[in-house]
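Treating backbone geometry as a discrete language has practical consequences that deserve illustration. Part of our work consisted of pairing the sequence of a single chain with a tokenised description of its backbone. What the numbers capture is local backbone geometry rather than side-chain detail. For completeness, the protein is quoted in full, as a sequence line and a line of structure tokens:
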Amino acid sequence: MMSRVRLPSPAPVRLCQPLLTTFPPADLSSARAALAPGPIIEPSQPRSVVRTGASGPWFVGAQMRPIPLFLLFQLAVVLAMGCGRGQITPQSSLDTAATHYGRGLLALDEGDLRTAQAQFARTRGLDDEFPGGYVGDALVAAAQGEFFHARQSIERALHLDDGFVDAHVALGRIVVDEGIARRRDSGDWLQEATRSFKRAAQLAPGRADADYHRARAEAQAGDIDAALDSYRRVIARNRGVLVSRAMAEAERLQVIQRAAPGTRLGAQIANLDQISLAEMAVLLLEEMKLEDLVRQRRLDPDPGGFHPPGSIVEAPREVAEKTTAANITTAWARPWVQRAFDLGLPGLEPMPDGTSAADRVVTRAQFARVVEGILSLLMDEPDLSSRYIGETSRFPDVRADHFSYNAIALSVDRGIMRPDSVSGRFRPSDPVSGAEALLIIRELQNAVRMEF
């Protein structure tokens, strides 16, 4: 009689569950049936005694349950393909990792993070050994504030190719963004970022992006002279899309130099592309010393005198009540916003519902109203707040009945704010940058002939 011996049970095999669907439905049923737990007959048991095993069907003497060879072949293919790193098959000669990496960078530059992320993911799918896919992933992560993830991806890119210039430039950018976001000392993050930018410049001396992003880092750290030198190197190459940007940034920095911020806060705000009401309040109080001017020129030197419509000399008590009720959401600027509201300047006041909206972006029209209010307060010209009402508009994009038209016309007439030199447009809805705000304040100081 043939002996029946049970062989040792191997460790269970874990399949890649999503890829089991590669079997045709009929074959999948066959595979499941073949792999289902079967009966086990022990040597000491009679043939009629059957006990079900938990580990699946194994050899039982001559009674082996056969598994079809075609199922074994398909299973091997699934394990080979599914449990490794998948690769996307290119759909055309242009469907390459480099192509999608470039498209991802363009989308990132335009602020479209979702498209950029998708392009970089396809980059890695087409070629997981191309470092650009991980550079792109790092830049997207940094834009989302995930700096640990960003650094990990950059390390992966540099591990694949330490000579990949984009990785060194991206690392410098990430260091700057992280340092600013975490409020670290600018000297520390600037030094670390500069090392990455210098390494990129050594690898590719003709590339402009290393100098461009180095200049941005130096400007954000407050080193205006160094930033201008870096921008000039970009401009001197006179080729590439970064030249026009470098020229615009250099012009902005020269405006900051002319405005000469006198405080640390002023220097930081000067680098902002757009300012909030809270930041405007800081500039007026710290750079212009507006409170000192108000103390010198009383809000209402003549209680019985005539005040034109819109004059800033409304009842101080009413203004104080509005300010007390204001919900100043920008906590860091609460002291400045509260004090600025106490002055009762048009354009620098709580919302009708009593909230401050201190984080709302300041437009050119709103800043013009603040200029009008300050001039009305400090100059001995009581009709300033109504002088231009009723005239024909002198700006193609501002109607004469616009709520800020008088303020806009006054600001332009006094040389404090300027329209476009070619079109004559004032752009009332455009945001005010930190550099522009500082320059307006300096012109305002000159207009009232005060020394600070």
User: Anything to note?
Assistant: The first strand starts at residue 39 and ends at 40. Residues 17-77 form one domain. Strands lie at 39-40, 51-52.
